[in-house]
Design brief:
With about 160 residues, the protein is α+β, with helices and mostly antiparallel strands. Helix content is about 35%, strand content about 25%. It has one domain (about 35-155).
Length: about 160
Amino acid sequence: MIGVPVDAWHVWLGLSLASVALVGVGATLPTAPPPAAGDAADTVDRAAATAHPTTAEHPLDARSIRIGPRRIGLRNDAGTTHAAFAFGPVTPAVASRELRAVLRGAPPESRFASGEALCDAGREARRGTPKWRPVDGPLIVRRVVWEGCDVTLVG
């Protein structure tokens, strides 16, 4: 007789282990796609490219975000994606309380003494090393033009 004896215990054990392995592989597959960093970068570029002060928001489907002057990174359980900005550099407004306030709508004159002080804070923010931070809402982009300072804040 040619073939595997189906009544052998080791055949049943092997089939059982293979079934458990397949279920385990299926359970670890991501249930959602990786976040779309390109769409977020497009929102930033649209705001940065305009000639007038503007504000834009983009919903995020990520758990963590990393914003740099020239790139954005998003990650969730399904993976990590990155995208470069076409218009930059932009100013990550995550480490400075004053820049975050202006990003969220405060007039720049309420947080900074002059346009030069705003530009200095922007330069300092762009020098920092981007870090992964938890996402706590939509991506906000605000282009501010005030007293000779032209800066695009992202947070």
